[in-house]
Amino acid sequence: MKRFTLTFSILCAACALSYAGTESYSGKDKEVVQQAPAPCEWYRSHEWDFNLWGSMSFPYNTGHDSDFRTSGFDGGTDQDFGTEHRDIGNVSHDRFINRDNAWGGGIDVKYFFSKHWGLGAEGFVVDANDNAAGGGLATLTFRWPIGCSRFAPYIFTGFGATEGGSHTFRNFIEKHPGTGDEPEFRQNLTVRNTHTNATGQIGAGLEIRITHHIGLMGDYAYNVLEYGHNDFGMARVGVTLSY
């Protein structure tokens, strides 16, 4: 009986050691010490990523129209000052950012259901001419970690909507006799947009993990807006928090 009890105790001890996994014991109190993640686990499946970034946006239609069109009177005659305004066409086709470049920022969240594929949502705002502009999109991201390194190039696409911004018209202004001002001159008039545009997005970038939960990201997104002539690029740099 004693021999059976000794044999059974040895077998139980062996089973316990075989199921210990990656845990190890140290000291007389057998304190559990968890081993660090493997170096190749900088990017994981079932991972939540939160990105906070600043941006610089560049419209793809800067400059002035070469063909100004006569489109009728805009506001008619100002009876108080004897002034006549005539809209003679757009200064630029751009009806969103409406300037050479614009600072901005945004945030996005992604859930990587595998090591390479993630679904997400993003929101951004830019300092458009005389009016704020912004948008929100649903995104799909594919990333490819390079071996066991901290680097992971990625590409992404998205679809959503943008709102705000402005557009500028050129007006021909004629002063009636007796006002004492220059009789004729041209003046630009900026109008704030209030409509919403359907928006598509495609881009590419690179993420670098500093730790398993903190990283740096940089990418470039090309945005296509409804009604044409409003497309713009956005260079983005920011921080990633991963859980």
CATH T-level fold name: Porin
Question: How far do the termini sit from each other?
Answer: 54 Å
> Biggest sheet: strands side by side, in what order?
3-6-7-8-9-12-13-14
Report the sheet-strand fraction.
Answer: over 45%
- Low-pLDDT regions: 13-26, 65-90
Share in helix: under 10%
The CATH architecture would be: Beta Barrel
Q: What Rg is obtained from the alpha carbons, in whole angstroms?
A: 31 Å
Total individual domains: 1
Q: With helices defined by DSSP (H or I, 4 residues minimum), what is the helix count?
A: 1
Global structural class = mainly beta
Largest sheet: 8 strands, antiparallel, barrel
Tell me the name of the CATH class: Mainly Beta
Mean pLDDT: 78
In total, the number of strands is: 14
Order of helices and strands: HEEEEEEEEEEEEEE
Instruction: Note the overall shape.
Output: elongated
Helix-strand layout with pairing:
Blueprint: H1 2-18, E1 24-26, E2 31-33, E3 47-59, E4 73-78, E5 83-90, E6 102-112, E7 117-128, E8 131-143, E9 151-164, E10 166-175, E11 184-192, E12 196-209, E13 214-225, E14 232-242
Antiparallel strand pairs: 1-2, 3-6, 3-14, 4-5, 5-10, 6-7, 7-8, 8-9, 9-12, 10-11, 12-13, 13-14
Can you give a write-up of this model?
There is one protein chain. By secondary structure, the chain is mostly beta strands. The chain has a single domain (47-61, 69-242), classed as Porin (Beta Barrel), CATH 2.40.160. It contains 1 helix and 14 strands. It has one helix spanning 2-18; strands at 24-26, 31-33, 47-59, 73-78, 83-90, 102-112, 117-128, 131-143, 151-164, 166-175, 184-192, 196-209, 214-225, 232-242. The strands form 3 sheets. The chain has an 8-stranded antiparallel barrel with strand order 3-6-7-8-9-12-13-14. Strands 4-5-10-11 form a 4-stranded antiparallel beta sheet, with no helix packed on it.
